[in-house]
Specification:
Nucleotidyltransferase, domain 5, 45% helix, alpha/beta, 5 strands, globular
């Protein structure tokens, strides 16, 4: 009887042998996108990578999502990387916070608390990880009391590819959701620029919406208290 080819041997491995094989050490990265805009949600992401996935994604050009800039080309590049991350990562988790919840927590002075609560939820959903690295020393540092293995740094994406991956996943999801909002309004108000940040393009849209409908869009963070 011929021996199975090397590529076929794994098919015949016993469950006991698989169970005895140690799982690769994972690093969980945490980051957010959309904390600052006046329009649309805030998104937190967590990504768990083993060393091989981290190396492969770094070679593919993974970096902090902010370094891609804005515009259609940047969104396309983030989307392509997000697809690669999902294919390589052991775990990808998302928490989406809408404008209404942000307003409630800002009114209480609890925006940082809200982010920590959502980050903790992601950590609890993730598989066991050797390291947890979060972007934002003051923001996520207090979570060490709950998760002693967590380390929080400013510019955390420079510490590990898992944080850069979380940055890309969060920003890509924010991009996608904001594009859906813009598509809902396009026929009535035309193209909406500005990415939801408080700039001239966003102000122009908000003024037009307010003038026509007598109120701001439901996706607006009223707690920002800005002058239009």
């Amino acid at each position: 009887m011929p021996r199975p080819a090397a590529s076929q041997l794994a098919f015949f491995a016993s469950p006991a042998a698989d169970a005895a094989r140690p799982a690769p050490a994972l690093t969980l990265g945490i980051d957010e996108a959309g904390r600052g805009p006046i329009l649309g949600p805030m998104v937190l992401a967590a990504v768990a990578l083993d060393a091989g996935a981290a190396r492969a994604l770094t070679r593919a050009g993974l970096c902090d999502s902010k370094r891609f800039g804005a515009g259609a080309e940047a969104r396309h590049r983030r989307a392509a990387l997000a697809s690669m991350i999902r294919a390589r990562a052991t775990f990808v988790g998302l928490e989406v916070v809408d404008a209404a919840e942000i307003d409630v927590r800002v009114d209480r002075g609890e925006l940082n608390v809200l982010e920590r609560e959502r980050a903790a939820r992601l950590i609890e959903q993730a598989p066991p990880c050797k390291r947890i690295v979060a972007d934002g020393a003051r923001l996520f540092g207090p979570l060490r009391a709950q998760f002693p293995g967590l380390r929080a740094y400013d510019r955390g994406e420079s510490r590990h590819a898992a944080v850069a991956a979380a940055s890309v996943i969060a920003k890509d999801e924010r991009d996608r959701r904001f594009a859906l909002l813009c598509a809902c309004w396009r026929d009535e108000f035309g193209e909406i620029g500005g990415g939801g940040y408080l700039n001239d393009a966003t102000r122009a849209f908000l003024r037009a919406y307010l003038a026509r409908k007598g109120e701001l869009p439901p996706e607006t963070r009223r707690s920002w208290g800005c002058r239009l």
